[in-house]
Specification:
With 214 residues, the chain is an alpha/beta fold. It is built from seven helices and eight strands.
Length: 214
């Protein structure tokens, strides 16, 4: 399956989430920046539910920041792949320092994206976490565990595409997973989009201003 772009993926996801429309007043759509916010905005628009941002950051391996050995969420929830931590030789000190560096970046981005708008209260709400796709799922896993701690009534993960094993793993963390395609073999997420251009901070800020709730 090839999606035209992130907006197209969001519109298709919204069709599969239409059962939430009746309870949109008790639902929050949370996008993982940056690209996930574009997808989430289409879902929020279609359902008539408010949009907000939820940030997790991967903890990169020593000498290879692109390889995620774990991830951290804005509330400090940290998920580590202990096998990768050992395999990459990441020391406890390195992990602690990198985790703190990513937490600082999360706070910077939250200030940039949300401004003075307070974080939504998610307790008792239906929460839909949206991204533009998952690969290893490290950051998504951290986000789901962090959100679970806020005691939502229902926690749904919605993504256009992801590898079958990752989707299965994340299914243990969410009450429901809506994933439109689980292709094998799985390449990079961008391989399943005709347009995979980078989303800017300015786009994220504009979408949150347009569809964000209070």
């Amino acid at each position: 399956m090839i999606f035209k772009d992130r907006q197209d993926a969001g519109r298709q996801l919204a069709q599969h989430l239409s059962f939430l429309r009746a309870g949109a007043g008790n639902t929050w759509i949370l996008g993982l920046p940056r690209g996930g916010v574009v997808v989430a905005a289409e879902v929020a628009r279609s359902l008539g539910a408010p949009l907000d941002v939820y940030i997790t950051r991967k903890i990169g391996a020593p000498g290879n920041e692109e390889l995620a050995i774990g991830a951290v969420s804005s509330d400090g929830t940290t998920v580590l792949d202990e096998d990768l931590v050992r395999a990459t030789g990441a020391s406890d000190r390195y992990v602690a320092q990198e985790t703190e560096r990513q937490r600082a970046e999360i706070q910077r981005r939250l200030a940039r994206y949300r401004g003075n708008r307070p974080a939504p209260t998610l307790s008792g709400k239906t929460v839909v976490l949206v991204d533009d796709g998952v690969a290893t799922g490290a950051t998504t896993l951290a986000a789901l565990r962090s959100l679970r701690g806020q005691k939502p009534a229902r926690l749904i993960l919605a993504v256009p595409v992801g590898p079958p094993d990752t989707i299965q793993k994340l299914g243990h963390e969410a009450d429901q997973v809506v994933c439109l395609a689980t292709p094998e073999p799985f390449w990079a997420v961008g391989a399943f989009f005709a347009d995979w251009s980078q989303t800017t901070d300015e786009e994220v800020v504009a979408l949150l201003a347009k569809y964000g709730g209070t």
